[in-house]
TrEMBL record:
It holds the Pfam family TonB_C. GO terms for molecular function: energy transducer activity. One of its GO terms (cellular component) is plasma membrane protein complex. Keywords: Cell inner membrane, Cell membrane, Membrane, Protein transport, Transmembrane, Transmembrane helix, Transport. The chain crosses the membrane at residues 13-36. Its main location: membrane. This is Energy transducer TonB. The keyword Ion transport does not apply.
Amino acid sequence: MAYADQEMSGNRIASFVVVALLHVVVGYALVTGLAYEAVQQVVKKVTTVDIKKEEPKKEPPPPPKKAAAPPPIVAPPPKINVNVTPPPVQTVVTPPPAAPVVPIIAPPAPVAPPPPRVQPKPATPKGNPANWATTNDYPTRALREEREGTTSFRVTVGPDGRVTGCSVTSSSGSPDLDDATCQNVTRRARFNPATDGEGQPTSGSYSNRVRWVIPKD
């Protein structure tokens, strides 16, 4: 038996059951003395059986296809007038800023040393400087060749008053006369030594000259 036949048989059985129940109710109403009109209304409601067939479920329709979006509207580029005269260019000459004035700071003045407690003194010769070189010291060759001249010299004097060095500052023109000058002055000269600002002996210097003259007989 097909599924539809089974469904129809079930509906018929249900109808028979309903009709039987209807007869029972009518009989009961007659026995109990219910009004005929009430019985008619019950019969009318009961006999009206609305048997609905189960309808097969409908599948939902497929979603509508989305329409493709129209391509964007591209406006043509505006026409450019190439012959437009450019605006005049104004050149503004801005003078360069003035250089900053750099103040010139003078160096600090040197600090003067404190004044000496005692006035310094130069070296002074002891005795007569004419005795440092005499005609007896005349070089033999210069005397034989009759050479004369004046030799200027400068000596350095140590704290003990002795000559520590001699130099010729102006030559006589004869090397042997110049050498004789320094040799005799270094050997014979004695000095009072120079003193510093504290009155203490210190190194000093002395300058003079020797005139070499051939003696007359």
